[in-house]
Design a protein that fits this description.
Length: about 200
């Protein structure tokens, strides 16, 4: 291809739209876990049946639980999930909504105490087109934010600097959670698994 042909090809590609794209194929495995998932193969349904350390669970409530995101945006990135396999917020029960809200508030307080978070991004991506990685099971993100936590690394070097190991973060958050971080069987939903 001549230099002129290469330039016109680049001009054509650039004229289609002005967006630059950052391809993240490493997330496909995580995203694919939720595609067409049902209770049997849903990671958020499976997590409560595992031990807290293995599942990265930091707290268990009656209707919902809190775990660390396996692919955190920042250390301490929490997910608040109902135990019940429900896809969207409008299908959650009043009890699930209340506990998701309460666990979210507690998570913010704990992360502020444990890691001195200076702000938060809180939200739910609903459905595949809404950006949900696991669209079939409702989950709320609680992302702690810090001054200067964004830099050029993710864009230029395709690298995210995460300063703490997941196991260390899980232990610190679970230890700081008020009350029992892993509630007894009397308040845990029946999963058939022994209390870790």
């Amino acid at each position: 291809m001549t230099d002129g042909a290469a330039e016109s090809s680049n001009d054509f590609a650039a004229s289609r739209d002005a967006f630059q794209r950052l391809w993240t194929p490493h997330r496909a495995v995580y995203v694919g876990q939720g595609q067409g998932a049902h209770d049997d193969d849903c990671p958020f349904c499976a997590a409560p049946g595992k031990g807290d350390e293995e599942a990265l669970i930091v707290a268990r409530g009656e209707h919902a639980y809190v775990l660390l995101n396996l692919f955190p945006y920042n250390p301490g990135h929490l997910l608040v999930c109902p135990y019940r396999h429900v896809s969207t917020y409008d299908r959650a029960t009043a009890e699930e909504v209340a506990e998701i809200g309460s666990l979210t508030q507690t998570g913010m307080r704990v992360l502020t105490d444990v890691s001195r978070a200076q702000g938060f991004n809180i939200g739910m991506n609903q459905g595949n087109v809404g950006g949900a990685g696991i669209a079939e099971h409702l989950h709320q993100h609680v992302v702690p934010r810090y001054s200067g936590d964004s830099n050029f690394f993710p864009i230029i070097a395709e690298t995210k600097a995460v300063t703490r190991l997941l196991g260390d973060v899980r232990a610190a958050v679970a230890d700081a959670w008020p009350g029992e971080s892993s509630l007894g069987a009397e308040r845990r939903p029946s999963t058939g698994a022994p209390n870790p």
